[in-house]
Amino acid sequence: MERRWDVIVVGLGIMGSAAAAALARRGVRVLGLEQHAPFHALGSSHGKTRIIREAYFESPEYVPLVQRAYVLWQELAERTGRQLLQITGGVSIGRPDSPFITGARESALRHGLPHELLDAEQARQRFPALAVPEEFVALVEGRAGILFAEECWRAFCEDATRHGAELRFGVAVRSFGAEGDGVFVETDGERLLAERVVITAGPWAPVVLSELGLPLTVRRVLVVHVLPHQPELCTPDRLPIFLLDVPEGEYYGFPLLPDQGVKFGRHDSGEPCTPETARRTVSDEELRSMTTVLQRYVPGATGSVLMSVTCLYTMTPDAHFIVDRHPRWPQVVFACGFSGHGFKFAPTIGEALADLALEGGTTLPIGFLRKDRFATTQ
C-alpha cells in the first residue's frame, strides 16, 4: 500500500525548510525533499549571515511581512535555543533621490517607523568607518540587524523534524502533477502521493516551474569577507549593517563579526547563469573591484580578504517575490523569485505557504506577490 502524505515540500532551502516547519507544527504529515546534502552551498540559502531591516525601501507593502518575520524569528529562536538574530541598527547611504533613501523613508513614514535622516557630515561623525560623499545623505533605522543564516536554516529543519516532518536529502524530484484531488511527485526511484505539494525550488525554479512561464532569471553574485585594519571602528556597536547606493552600484555590508570579518557584497549585478553553469570561483579582478569600492566608502573596513563566496539570485523583472497557487492545480502552491532580498521573510513565507496549502488562502498581505502581475503562458 502506498503511503500518502498530507503535504510534500520540494526544495529544503530556507523557504522550504520554513514551510516544512510551519506545516509540521500544524500537525499534518509532511515530507520534505531536497536534491542536495543538508545545508549545501549551491543555491541561495548558505553563508553565515543575512540582513533584516524594517524600513523597507523596495516597497511599504513588505513592512507588515517583515514585522511578522521579526516575531516568528524570535519564536523560532526560543523553540530551538539558537541565537538567530542580532539587532545592530542600519544605515542606508545614497543621494537624496536614491531609492534606498526615498523608499525607506516612504516605508518608515507610512508605517510610523522611527528613523533619522542625516547629512554627510553627521553620518561621518556617527559612523567613523564610513566615508560618506558630501552630496549624500544617510537614513538610519533602529531595528535592522543580522540574521545568522546557517543557524536559521538549521533551526527550521530541527523544528520541522521535532514536530514530525520527515526530511529526505539527496533526493531529486523529476516531475509532479495532479492526481485526482491530490498530487504525485516522481523522484528517481519512487512515486510519492500527497494531498498538497509546496514548491520552493530556489534557483532551480525556472526549470521545476517551467510550464508556468514565469519570468525568472538566475544570476551569480559575489560576497567578500575582509579583516579590517581598523577593527575598533567596525564593531556592531559602531558600524551597523549598511546599504550603499553609489555610482559604482548597489552594495551592502555587515559589521565585524567573529569568523567572518566585515562582509561586503554587491546587490545589483551578476553573471547570468543556472545552478549548473554558475562559476563558483572568484577572480582576482573581481576581488579588486569589490575591495576598491569598500576602501572608497568604508575605509575603516579596508584590509586583507579572508574569503569570498558566490551565491545565486533568482530574479523577477520587478525584483518582488512570487508566492501563489498553481493556476490549474490549486493543490500545488509555490514561492520563488526572491531576488536577493527574501531570506529575512522566510518564516512569514513559510506561514503563508502553509496557509495556502491547507486553507487555500491566507490573511497575510501577500496579494502584491501573485504571479498574475506578469503576463505568462498560463
What does the secondary structure layout of this molecule look like, with pairings?
Layout: E1 4-10, H1 14-24, E2 30-34, E3 49-52, H2 63-80, E4 85-87, E5 90-94, H3 99-111, E6 115-119, H4 120-126, E7 137-141, E8 145-148, H5 149-162, E9 166-169, E10 173-179, E11 182-187, E12 191-199, H6 205-208, E13 217-228, E14 241-246, E15 249-253, E16 262-266, E17 271-272, H7 284-297, E18 303-315, E19 322-325, E20 332-336, H8 346-359
Parallel strand pairs: 1-2, 1-12, 2-9, 5-14, 12-20
Antiparallel strand pairs: 3-8, 4-8, 5-7, 6-7, 10-11, 11-12, 13-16, 13-17, 13-18, 14-15, 15-16, 19-20
- Let me know the average pLDDT: 96
Task: List SSEs in N-to-C order.
Answer: EHEEHEEHEHEEHEEEEHEEEEEHEEEH
How much of the sequence lies in strands comes to 25-35%
User: What Rg, in angstroms, do the CA atoms define?
Assistant: 21 Å
* Structural class category: alpha+beta
Spans where pLDDT lies below 50 across 5 or more residues:
none
- Distance between the amino and carboxyl termini: 35 Å
- What is the percent of helical residues? 25-40%
Largest sheet: 9 strands, mixed
Strand elements, count: 20
- Overall morphology: globular
Total helices: the number is 8
